[in-house]
Design a protein that fits this description.
about 25% helix; Enoyl-CoA hydratase; alpha+beta; MaoC-like_dom
Length: about 150
Amino acid sequence: MTDRYLDDLVVGETWTGQPFVLTQAEILDFARAYDPQPMHVDLDAASAGRFGGLIASGWHVASRVMREYVDAAPFGATSMLGIRIDELTWLKPVRPGDALTVHREIVEVTRSRSKPDRGTIRTFTRVTNQHAEPVLTFFNLIQMPAHAGVSL
């Protein structure tokens, strides 16, 4: 991907990532390390629980979305700084074998008044499963250079 900067971006620009699948082993490994709740780590307890089976930690899903973003590099090698995530919402459980697709849209582009060589973009992210059902949404505020030759 070509390096892109604040000056290159427009509100309404969208992109969609390549689907990725969460396996049972990956769900269990992540949850054992970072979110060891029964619905994420114990197959029997998960089956007997309110979700009727094993589900991925929402934090796992969010971290895989971040990985997909880094791998996709929609702005090339342009340096960026994540500032904030707003309205992170887990809408539907993610189960082993679900294929997730990340959809992003630029909803705001703002040049800094105090440092005009940079600015922020606000994106809306929606993650859907293989049935096109939304499973996760959030807004992200990212700082980036306005043009080439600026480093953060």
